[in-house]
Amino acid sequence: KRFLITQDDDMSVLASSEVADLGEVNMSDGATLVDFIEWAVSSYPARKTMLILSDHGAGWPGGWGDPDPGGPGSDQIALAEFFGDSLWLMEMDLALEEARTNLGLDAFDVIGFDACLMAQLEVFTAIAPHARYAVASEETEPGLGWAYAAFLSRLANDPSMDGGGLTTAIVETYIDGDMRLEDPAYVGNLSPAQAAAEIFPETTLSAIDLAQIAPLNAALDGFAATLTTLDQEIVAQARTYAQSYESVFGDEFPSPYIDLGHFAQLIQERTGDAAVLEAAQVLDAARADAVIAERHGDDRPGSTGVAIHFPVRNMYS
User: Fold this and answer.
1) What whole-number distance in Å separates Cα of residue 284 and Cα of residue 281?
2) DSSP state at residue 188
3) Which end of the chain has less neighbouring CB within 10 Å, N or C?
4) Per residue in 258-310, pLDDT tens?
């Protein structure tokens, strides 16, 4: 179904108008995403556009699986045997390109992932051609998701806000700005501040300037090249102790999702090699340019805004 969401203060009933009943559709099919984007942008034209994908993310594989159609889907890839049919990252890339081309849309102002594990360099690289800014989480997200009422109130009060300002507002209001913290049915006997304190420690959220992703990739390439000159025990130690996040591949091996900035920091702490240190500083600067806002809870202290996929070798042996 499609709804035109309008403001109301009742958190128990959806008062917004239903504008279309599509019946059963495959939400993991890129064609469904294309159809929605074209309908939404054509039906509700605006000077600025934001696409939010909400549900289950899995990092660089993509996410948004739909179990109802069943089976691995039409894409003949090995991941489908593990995850079932999903909206794969390459499928998302193709869908965004098709929709923008058909609409004559230069770029979305913002693409947001109100979903788990999507704040990865691999993901930002894929969507960089399609948007100016992005919001995503390195770690899994709690059921609250984003604090929509809080950041949309800021937007309503300042409609001139650009994508950078809006994504920053999403990060700044995350968890502790959520209206549901005022709802006893959701938080029980806890005060809003207590509920936020219970939820926030394991959470992360980042706002990204996608124009800085290409320089960040170039800096990472340079840094990785210098690592080949190091004793690989140093690299292995840094990879082991870098801040990690939930693995969608099971618990048999260490999580392959780690924080890029923390990994580079640990490398710097373990070597005096001038070339490596210089490359790490270039990488740090590029990451800082890309991450315009970032928050993380106390249980994810090594989070700096961007994760990478760095599996251990025996995961593929």
Assistant:
1) 5
2) T
3) C
4) 999 999 999 999 999 999 999 999 999 999 999 999 999 999 999 999 999 99
Query: Measured between alpha carbons, how far is 13 from 125 in angstroms, rounded to an integer?
Result: 39
- For residue 32, the tally of other CB atoms under 10 A from its CB is 17
Per-residue model confidence as pLDDT tens digits over 31-47:
999 999 999 999 999 99
Helix (H, G, I), strand (E, B) or coil at 120: strand
Encode 105-133: b = buried (16+ Cβ within 10 Å), e = exposed. Answer: eebbbbbbbbbbbbbbbebbbbbbebbbb
CB-based contact 58:120 (threshold 8 Å): no
Q: 317 pLDDT band (50/70/90 cuts)?
A: low
Tokens describing residue 245: 């996040």
In 112-212, which residue ranges form alpha helices assigned H by DSSP? 121-127, 148-157, 163-173, 184-187, 192-199
CB of 19 closer than 8 Å to CB of 4: yes
C-alpha R_g of the chain: 20
Give the amino acid at 32.
Answer: T
- Quote the tokens at residue 180: 């549901």
What pLDDT shows up at residue 72?
67
One-letter amino acid of 176: D
> pLDDT tens across 239-250, in order?
999 999 999 998
Helix (H, G, I), strand (E, B) or coil at 132: strand
Burial profile 36-56: b = 16 or more Cβ within 10 angstroms, e = fewer: bbbebbeeeeeeebbbebebb
Which tokens hold the place of 141?
A: 């997200």
Orientation of helix 260-270 relative to helix 232-241, angle to 10°: 140
Contacts by 221-228 with C-beta closer than 8 Å and gap 24+? 222/279, 222/282, 222/283, 223/264, 223/276, 223/279, 223/280, 223/282, 223/283, 225/279, 226/273, 226/275, 226/276, 226/279, 227/267, 227/276
- The mean pLDDT of the chain is 94
* Mean pLDDT along residues 101-128: 98
